[in-house]
Each structure stands twice: as C-alpha cells, then as structure tokens.
C-alpha cells in the first residue's frame, strides 16, 4: 500500500452553538490540514497522485471558501446578522451543523473527493498544536 500526504494551513473563525464553554465564543484558529491518499498501485510516472496537482486543487477550494472566512452554523443568526453589515466578511455556512473540526474535516474530505476525483484515506485538521480531528472514508484502493 502506498500513502502520500500533503499539508497546508489556513486561517478561519468559528464558534459552536449549544456548547457550554470557551468554544461558544467567536474565535479563530490557524488550522493545519493534512490530506492522506492511499493506493495499491501507481499511475505513470510512478505516483499515487501528483503532489502539485493535488495541492493546487485542494488549496484552490480552501482559498475560495475557508481561508480567512467565518465558518458558521446556518442556525447561528447572531453571528450571521452581526457580521453581515461588515464591508469585508466571508462566510462558509455549515447546513444546520456546527463548524467543529470534526465537521470541517468531513467537509474537506468530501471536497477533496469531488475536486480530485479520489477519496482520501483520511483528512486530519489540527485545531491547535495539541489536538486534531480526523475523518476517514472508505479505502481508495486502486482508484488513483
Ligand atoms: Zn475553535
């Protein structure tokens, strides 16, 4: 089994609804993202996936949707209406779901599958240097 991994960072804000703790307050993180691809076989010229192509496709989506954005639960009318008057604000809405790192890792997993035409083995998102969330999908054996 071959495995490759790319890593990049992006900045975003979020908060958790229905949560009793500091994460209920709007705040931000520099998120470190890792995307893992696996394959039993290699494509010419001996790759699981071209690193540059993979990074370009994923980073384009992240830059256009999540980087320097506020990742908001669609039910969060306080933050949505509070920031709506700002001249420069960018929202990425999670449909009736908190923008937890668990949900964000699943979203990046799904977007990687969509834009790269391969299901990652997993996506890991670091919320801080001490903690991360991961989302695993079905094995992508032979799909590279
Ligand atoms: Zn947070």
Order of helices and strands: EEHEHEHEE
How many domains? The number is 1
Class per helix and strand makeup? alpha/beta
Mean pLDDT: 92
CATH class designation: Alpha Beta
* Count of strand segments: 6
Taking the alpha carbons of the first and last residues, their distance comes to 12 Å
Heterogens: zinc ion
CATH level-4 homologous superfamily:
6-pyruvoyl tetrahydropterin synthase/QueD
Percent in helix: 25-40%
**Uncertain ranges:** none
CATH architecture: 2-Layer Sandwich
The radius of gyration computed from the alpha-carbon positions, rounded to a whole number of angstroms, is 16 Å
Determine the CATH topology.
Tetrahydropterin Synthase, Chain A
Spatial strand arrangement across the major sheet? 4-3-1-2-5-6
Strand percentage, roughly?
25-35%
Q: In one word, what is the shape?
A: elongated
Largest sheet: 6 strands, mixed
Give the count of helical stretches.
3
Describe the structure.
The protein has 144 residues and is an alpha/beta fold. It has one domain: Tetrahydropterin Synthase, Chain A (2-Layer Sandwich), CATH 3.30.479. Helices cover 27% and strands 33% of the residues. The protein contains three helices and six strands, in the order ββαβαβαββ. The termini are close together. The relative contact order is 0.22. The model has no long low-confidence stretch (mean pLDDT 92). Bound molecules: zinc ion (ZN). The site of zinc ion has 5 residues, from strand 2.
């Amino acid at each position: 089994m071959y495995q490759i991994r790319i890593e990049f960072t992006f900045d975003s804000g979020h908060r958790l609804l229905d949560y009793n703790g500091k994460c209920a307050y709007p705040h931000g993180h520099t998120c470190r993202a890792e995307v893992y691809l696996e394959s039993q076989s290699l494509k010419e010229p001996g790759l699981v996936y071209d690193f540059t192509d993979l990074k370009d496709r994923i980073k384009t989506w992240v830059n256009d949707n999540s980087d320097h954005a506020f990742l908001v639960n669609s039910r969060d009318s306080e933050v949505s209406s509070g920031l709506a008057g700002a001249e420069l604000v960018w929202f990425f809405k999670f449909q009736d779901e908190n923008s937890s790192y668990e949900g964000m890792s699943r979203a990046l997993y799904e977007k990687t599958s969509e834009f790269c035409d391969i299901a990652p083995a997993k996506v890991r998102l670091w919320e801080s240097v001490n903690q991360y969330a991961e989302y695993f999908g079905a094995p992508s054996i032979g799909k590279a």
